[in-house]
Amino acid sequence: MSRFLSGRFVALEAYTPGEQPRDKRYIKLNTNESPYPPSKEVMERISKEEVMALNLYPDPTGRALKEKLAALYEVNTEQVFLANGSDEILNFAFLAFCDAQNGAVFPDISYGFYPVYAKLYQIPFEEIPLKEDFSIDSKAYCGLNRMIVIANPNAPTGMALSVGQIEEIVKSNPDHVVLIDEAYVDFGGESCIGLTKKYGNLLVVQTFSKSRSMAGARLGFGIAQAELIADLKKIQYSTNPYNINRLTLAAGEAAVESDAYYKENAKRIIETREKTAKELRELGVTVLPSKANFIFAGSGRLDGDSLYRELKAQGILVRHFEKERIRNFVRISIGTPGQMEALVSAFQKILAERRERP
Ligand code: PMP
Predict the structure, then answer these.
(1) 220 touches 38 (CB < 8 A)
(2) Parallel, antiparallel, or unpaired: how do β-strands 316-317 and 27-28 relate?
(3) Which residues pair with 128 in a beta bridge?
(4) In sequence order, which residues have a C-beta less than 8 Å from that of residue 51 and are 6 or more positions away?
(5) How many angstroms separate the Cα of 97 from the Cα of each of 8, 101, 193, 228, 242?
(6) Distance, CA 183 to ligand 1 centroid (Å)?
(7) Measuring from each residue's beta carbon to the nearest atom of ligand 1, which residues come in under 6 Å?
(8) How far is CA 242 from CA 7, 39, 233, 321, in A?
């Protein structure tokens, strides 16, 4: 830390992204990326002409992409917000809708970035414990009158709430924003986008990083009523108007056009997830019921950190979180069927070695 950093950030603990080691080639199942490439249309759209136009700033309104998303999700363009990854929308939402008097609420086990944003902006926050079975206690979020942030499906558990449960939360906090982070919704969850027609306080956030195979392009979007979107735009135009680069906007348009390709990939990922979960359960591993492109798994025979290390030694990267209630689990992204077969074999080997030890 340098002597120049403002005192208000000295104690701030920044978010830690999943590791990207370079020492050897790993089967990378630690950051919930798609194992499948972007569509043919996306590759064709990043043409020489597109690159030649990089001397010009991108369209700060992202109109063409917004029109495509609005048509796909049956809303109007004023209800769509575009950002440099959905992380940027989360950042803007904490900045726009909270302050020292207006705090935030989220589950105690969820996306690790939520408390980082709250601390960055010195926003008081409450973390509501997950229930015994690791599901979100939706009733506990009713009538709180603070900004609520819920990942649905939740991370790293993969477990989802129904649209009905979310509606109760939204309805009972009419004067505060309820942000539903649907980063993983395309893998079997139910989207709340339809509820934005009825509720002005609902902000639904999605990303192109997971089901649309574009984590490297950094593109996220939010859907809400126009009034709320205008607040986010105010923050965008006060920080970084050209927040999405030209190539990403072009790739995003092509990706929306290839919706069928991505739906097919999501279907394959769901099938692979279910097969992997079944095989791990047959080995005696606990696997939470997931509606995401990852599973959360743990074995009574060794703690999560040892599991993470032993899988890494076998060339497979997964994610472990050093947090009391989940320290015996690891989060495993769903890769190709071949990668998941390698994962199940690695588990088999690790668990057999444990059995043989006295
Ligand atoms: N929300 C959740 C729940 C996530 O797991 C992630 C991915 N780390 C994000 C948002 C951010 O995704 P991105 O910025 O790539 O859109």
Answers:
(1) no
(2) parallel
(3) 107
(4) 247
(5) 20, 11, 20, 10, 22
(6) 6
(7) 85-87, 111, 151, 155, 181, 183, 207, 209, 215, 220
(8) 30, 25, 11, 34
Work out which ligand 1 atom sits closest to the CA atom of 220.
16
Q: Cis (ω within 30 of 0) for the bond into 153?
A: yes
- Statement: residue 356 has pLDDT above 80: no
Neighbours of 195 (CB within 10 A): 17
Instruction: Tell me the pLDDT tens digit for each residue of 175-210.
Output: 999 999 999 999 999 999 999 999 999 999 999 999
Write down the pTM of the prediction: 0.97
The answer to whether the CB of 121 falls within 8 A of the CB of 94 is yes
Reading the block at residue 265, the tokens are 């990939």
Only one residue has tokens 């506990």, namely 140
- Residues 77-110 as b/e (b if ≥16 CB within 10 A, e otherwise) read bebbbbbbbbbbbbbbbbbbbbeeeebbbbbebb
Ligand 1 center from residue 325 Cα (angstroms): 22
